[in-house]
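TL;DR need C-alpha cells for one chain.
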Amino acid sequence: MTPPPDAEFAYIEWLRSRTPPDARVLIGPGDDCAALAVPSPRPLLVTTDMLLEGSCFRLAEAGPRRVGRKSMAVNLSDIAAMAGVPLFAVVSVGLPRSMPRRVAEELYLGLRETADAFGTAVVGGDTNSWDGPLSISVTLIGQATERGPVRRDGAKPGDWLLVTGPLGGSILGHHLDFTPRVRESLALHEASPLHALIDISDGFAADLWHICEESKCGAVVFADRVPVSDAAREEAARDGRTPLEHALGDGEDFELIVAVSPTDGERLMRTQPVEGVTLSHVGEVVPAGLWIEEDGRRRELPPAGYVHRFG
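>> reply
TL;DR here they are.
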C-alpha cells in the first residue's frame, strides 16, 4: 500500500530517496536504529543543538533552506570547537501541521547540502507534527584526530588568544550563512599544539569566560586588536552601542577562540597557515579575572553574551 503523498511516511520515503549510500553506514534511515562503522578507535565526539522558531530563527524571513543549513552548521561548529572530524548526524524535526510539504523538503535540502559539504552522513532521526512552531534538533557524531580532542580547560597564564575572523553583527545574516570552522580548526590543530579552543556562539566575552572558568585562569583582551565586522559597525550606527561592544557581546559569530603558547602564537600570526582566514592576536591568558585593555588602561570585561532565559 502506498501512503498518501502528504503523510509522514511519504515524507520519510522522500528523505530516504535523497540520502546517498555511504560505506560507513551499515544501516541507514528506515530501521529502528542506524548501524555505523566507526573508522578507528579514536574518541568519538557527540553534540546536539535544538533550534526553535522565534528564538533561533524566523522562518518567514530566513526561508526553510537557510534554517536547515543553520541547524546542521551549529553542530558542525561544535565539532570544530574540539578540532574534530564530523562523521554522522541524526535529525529530529517538529513540523507545524500547517507547513506545506515543499517547505519541509527545502528544510531538509538545506540540512543535506551542509552535511554533504563536510562529509557528514545523515543516518536517521524522527519526524513529528504539532500545532506549534518549527523545531529542529540535530545530534552530530564526530571523531577526534590522533592528537585528541581540544578542550576548554587547557589554557595557561601567558598563552596567546587568537580568533579566526571578524566579530559582531551576526543578526544581519551571518548567523544563518556562516561557514563552520571545521577545516580551519583541523589545520590549526595540525600546525600547532592547541591548549584550548571554543567556538563563539553566545558571544566573544561570554565564550572566552567559559575558557577561563574551565581552565581556572583569567584573560585580558586588547581592545584595539579585536577584529570588528562591517555588520557590527552597521548595527552600531543603528542602536548607539559601539562597534567594539557588538564585537564583544553579539552572539552567533561561530568563529574560534584559540589559546596557544606565545611561541606558537607568534609563529601562527607570522605565517598565517590557514588559507582564507586571518588570525588575530586579541589577548592573553592571565592568572585571574576577565579584563579589557584600552588606551593603556585595564578594566573589568563583563562576560556579556546571549543567555536563554526561563523560570
